[in-house]
Predict the 3D structure of the following.
Amino acid sequence: MAFELHRRSGHQPRLTTRQEHERRQRRRSSFIAAASTFVVLVAVVVLVPRMPRWDRVKQSFFDVNQMRNSFPRLIDAFWLDVKIFAWTTPAIFALALLIALARNSRSPALFPVRMLAAAYTDVMRGVPVILWIYLVGFGVPGLGIARPFNSPLLWGSVALAMTYSGYVAEVFRAGIDSVHESQRAAARSLGLSSTQTMRHVVLPQAIRRVVPPLLNDLVSLQKDVALVSLIGPIEILRQAGIDKSKFANFTPFVVAALIFLSVTIPLTRLTDYLWHRERRRTSGTRVAP
Amino acid sequence: MTPKVSLRGVTKSFGTNTVLCNLSLDVANGEVVSLIGASGSGKTTLLRCVNLLEQIDDGAVLLDGDEISAIGRDPNPVRRRVGIVFQSFNLFPHMSVARNITLALTKVLGLSPADAAAQAGELLRRFGLAEKADVYPDQLSGGQQQRVAIIRALAMRPEVLLLDEITSALDPELVGEVLDVVRELKGSGITLLIATHEMAFAREISDRVCFLHTGTVAEIGTPAQVFSTPSDERTQQFLRRVMN
C-alpha cells in the first residue's frame, strides 16, 4: 500500500526492510507463475502437434474455412439461445422468489404451503435438467394442446424455468435466512406487518447478499439453454450438429463453444468481482499470511 | 388510577430456562422506571414482553388496563403505541437515516412521504443530527446510530418507550450524548421503561428503580431507597459488585 502511494506520487520509493522483502517475494511468485504457465504452453504447442494423428484432429476440429462458413449460421442460431435465456430468467426469478417466501413463511397455518414448496425444490433439483426437458417438452405438447401452445420450444423453456427456479429459490432462501433476526425485531417493533417487514427490510438486504450466487446460476442457465435443442428447436448446438453432419467436420462445435465463452466469461468475471467485493465488505480485515 | 403498563404474574421460559417467573410490575402514566439487575435476570425479556416481541407463557400484560397479551390479539396496533430501542441499534443498513425514520411513518401510520420527511427532519434537527439525514447508518458513530434509533422509535409518537441497555454497545465517550436524549424525554409525558447497567444514570433519571433477580422483582422503590438503603440482601450484593 505504502509502496503504491510512493509510486503514484512519483517519488523514488524508500522502502523499509520488510517492504523490500515483500517486494522480492512478490517478484518471486510472479516469476514462478509465469514460468509454470510458459512450460505448460510450450508442452501444449510443441507436444500436441507431435501426436500421431494431430493432422486429422486439426483438420476436423480447427478448420479455418469451416469456421468462416459456419459462423454466420451459428451466430443466427445463438440468437435463439439468447431469447430463451431472456424470457426464462424473469420467470425463474419470480417463481423462485415465491417459493422461497413460501418456505420462509412462519404462520403455523401455512404448514402445507411450506411442505409443498420444500417438495417442489427437492423434486426439481433431484432430477437432471435434461430429463425435465424431455418429460415436459414432449409430454405436455403430447396432450394435444392447440397451437401455438404445443411448441416444444415453449415447454422446453418451461422445463428450464421449473428446474432453475428450484435452485434459485434455495439461493433466495439462504439470503433471507442470513438477515439477522434483530432486523425483523426492529421492523416489527415499529408496527410493520410481517409482509411489510419482508418487503422493505428483509428482502432488500437478502437479495443484495445473494447477487453473486444468482449470477453464478445465470452462467449455468446460459449454457443449459442449449439442452432445449434436444427436443427440436434449432439453436446453436443443434445448428452446429447439422453443420457437422453436412460437412463431416467437428469445427462448428468448436465455434459454438467459443461463442458460448464470449458470453459466459464476462458474466463469470463479473460474478467473481462481486464475490470479492461482498467478501471485503463483510468479512473484515484480512489476517497476515 | 389505571397503570399505563401492568405485568401480572408473567412467566416466560425459553425451553427449560425460565427467564421471567410470576413477575408483577405496575408502571404509572408518564413514569420513568429503571430495571437493574445482573445479566440474565430478565430485563431484556421483560421489555420484549411489553411490546409483544415475545409471547408470554402465563400471566397477563396490560396496556391502559387492556390485556394486550391475550391470545389472538393483533400485536401491530400495540407496537405502534409501545416503542423500543435496542442495545445493538438495529438500524436498517440499506436505508438512509431519513428513510429509517420515515419507513414506518408512511407504511404504518399512512403519512404522505412529504409529511413523514418533514417530521423526520424536525426530530433530527431537535437532536442535532439534521446534516445526517441522507447518510447511511454505517457512516455514523455508534452514539449517532443509537440517537437515530431513538428518533426512529419516537417518530411513531409512542405512549411508552422501552430502552433496552441502549448504551451497552457504545464506547464510553459516546454514552453521554445518548443519555442526554433520554434526559430530554423525561417529563414529556412519555412513559419510560429502561433496562440499564448505568447505575448513576438510573439513579438520576428514574422515578422508581426496580431490581430484578432470576426473573422476579426482588426490590422496587425510589432511587434513594434502592441505592442508599436497599432492604433486600440480593440488591445489596448486586450494588456492591457494580458500584466499585
